[in-house]
Amino acid sequence: MEGRAVAKKKRKDPLWAKLLLVLGALLLVASGGGLIGGKLLLDHYSDQITHEGGLGQAAAEGNIIDGPINLLLVGVDERAGNAEMGARADSIIIAHIPASHDAVYLTSIPRDTRVRIPAFPKTKYTGGTGKINAAFQAGSENGGGREGGLELLAETVKELTGGLRFNGAAIVNFDGFKGLVDAMGGVHMCVDERVISIHTGWNTKTGKEGVPYNFVNDLPTTLKPNMRAQTYEVGCYDMAAWEALDYVRQRDKLANNDGDYGRQRHQQQFIKAMLKKATSSGVMLNPIKITEILNRMGDAVSFYNNKIDLTDWIFTLKGIKPDQMVTLKVNNGDFHSETIGGQSYEILDDNAKALLTAIARDEVGPFLAGHPEMINNNADQPAVTPGATTAKSPSGKPSTR
To answer: How far apart are the two ends of the chain, measured CA to CA in Å?
Structure first.
């Protein structure tokens, strides 16, 4: 729509939503594959999803995944139409599965985290200190492309964590995931704080959708005349794909003023909600719906498999359930900002660094036993449970959630 096109020009799309669906996409294929064709079907979809390379010196050795598994999930702002700005990793998540294969721990690294970025001769980058999201840009320049950007980012995370190596990685596509969630029939979400959308609104006179806010310096300021912003009230609702994806994009007008940390929590909620829907009987017992979901997978996920067949990934992960997913917060979900040399950085506290070390050593369970405050207990539950509300759909008609 025209309103949404304007939003993209004025403000880049946040990509946490893209990221947090990647692991869910893999588990989703795992859940559906055994029901509608097994290995032959997964071999067919493998060519649409998997890619080689992308991990460099941070790749795990060997081509088996029977021990601890680490995935690097990356959302990238590629600045379409503005190539001179390069590409940066907007979202960085480590998905850690212990050797017991009975849990998934999701840990987000704030994109403004101050790190040392190692030299990368492939693109003539000499190394330096900066924000972690700049590592992808430095690796993608001078012909490095997506694979070079992912490789340097993986090597940067490896150094930050004290030696963590990755069994695989993924880059995702926002529009592809919207189709994926549409194919599932939406998700059930619990809103834990009042959220006002800066991307989606409705004209109170015409009922048409549009961008509700004026922007100054890439930040929302005042409402445009006759515009009402889409608002998500505290409570649990069945959300259409457009609602869920719009909700998890927001970071500017959150009731708790928790910005990126709040957005991270909401998107952790989103992946759990998606997995629950994917493994529900309404999806799992519907071969037509599962086939549609699988057909959309290639549009949503670029998976770098580290020379491990997708079928091996799928059958290794297929036993993991949504309630075994543990979402974690670094810095206790609070900002630790520091200005150095005129640049504002996010600084990881000692507990955050210790968590990353525990991931590298496959000791996350014991670490969390002593640091339960790092678990996002409210990632999938509302603060209160009010009655159902209504929201405007993209067609301008009310839709009960």
So the answer is: 23
